[in-house]
């Protein structure tokens, strides 16, 4: 099982600033990632929350059963030392995804306090980033 976790405001994907984040909804993203993982027999457990503690609790609950994580932490990317520590406690591969190119926006979006706790980052490739991250995880799970 891989985890597909989205942080604050990503429940509004599709209607929130579509010029920045596009028209695809979070339900569409979850379906796309599930469809990409199904042929490999890998289940996707999706979770979204606007609350830092709820995201941390979800990660803790799955720390022993998940095989990988795709995470768009929303604005917690730039602020959450608590999420950084929670990610450090996870032994499986972890990919950070940002739909928009955070480097081409406000200066405060350029820093991710979570990136040092992740295996890698996919930034600015739209919702395709979620798929690319899931495909990389599938390779890792298969031993590639
Ligand atoms: C985001 C970028 C963040 O800076 C922002 O707070 C978001 C979405 C992205 O996917 O581009 O909520 O993570």
Strand order of the largest sheet: 2-1-3-4-5
CATH fold field value: Rossmann fold
Regarding quaternary structure, how should these chains be classified? single chain
Largest sheet: 5 strands, parallel
How far apart are the termini? Answer: 17 Å
Question: What is the number of helical segments per DSSP (H or I, 4+ residues)?
Answer: 5
Estimate percent helicity. 25-40%
Uncertain runs are none
Description:
There is one protein chain. The protein has helices spanning 18-21, 26-37, 52-61, 81-88, 128-141; strands spanning 2-6, 44-48, 68-72, 94-98, 120-123. With 144 residues, it is of the alpha/beta class. It has one domain: Rossmann fold (3-Layer(aba) Sandwich), CATH 3.40.50.9100. The protein is globular. Bound molecules: 1,3,4-trihydroxy-5-OXO-cyclohexanecarboxylic acid (DQA). 1,3,4-trihydroxy-5-OXO-cyclohexanecarboxylic acid binds at residues 9, 72, 74-75, 77, 98-100, 102, 109. 1,3,4-trihydroxy-5-OXO-cyclohexanecarboxylic acid (DQA) binds at residues 9, 72, 74-75, 77, 98-100, 102, 109.
How would you summarize this macromolecular structure in one to three sentences?
This protein is an alpha/beta fold and 144 residues long. The protein is built from five helices and five strands; from the N terminus they run βααβαβαββα.
Topology (SSEs and partners):
Blueprint: E1 2-6, H1 18-21, H2 26-37, E2 44-48, H3 52-61, E3 68-72, H4 81-88, E4 94-98, E5 120-123, H5 128-141
Parallel strand pairs: 1-2, 1-3, 3-4, 4-5
Helix pairs in contact: 2-5, 3-4
Residues 9, 72, 74-75, 77, 98-100, 102, 109 line the site of 1,3,4-trihydroxy-5-OXO-cyclohexanecarboxylic acid.
InterPro entries: DHquinase_II, DHquinase_II_CS, DHquinase_II_sf
Function: Catalyzes a trans-dehydration via an enolate intermediate.
Binding site for substrate: 72, 78, 85, 99-100, 109
């Amino acid at each position: 099982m891989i985890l597909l976790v989205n942080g604050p405001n990503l429940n509004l994907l599709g209607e929130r600033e579509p010029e920045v984040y596009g028209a695809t909804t979070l339900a569409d993203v979850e379906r796309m990632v599930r469809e990409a993982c199904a042929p490999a027999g890998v289940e996707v457990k999706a979770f979204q929350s606007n609350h830092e503690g709820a995201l941390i609790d979800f990660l803790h609950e799955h720390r022993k059963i998940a095989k990988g994580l795709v995470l768009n932490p929303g604005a917690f990317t730039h602020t959450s030392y608590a999420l950084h520590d929670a990610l450090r406690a996870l032994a499986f591969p972890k990919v950070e995804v940002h739909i928009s190119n955070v480097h081409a926006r406000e200066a405060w979006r350029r820093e991710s306090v979570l990136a040092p706790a992740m295996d890698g980052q996919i930034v600015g490739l739209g919702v395709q980033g979620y798929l690319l991250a899931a495909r990389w995880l599938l390779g890792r799970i298969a031993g590639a």
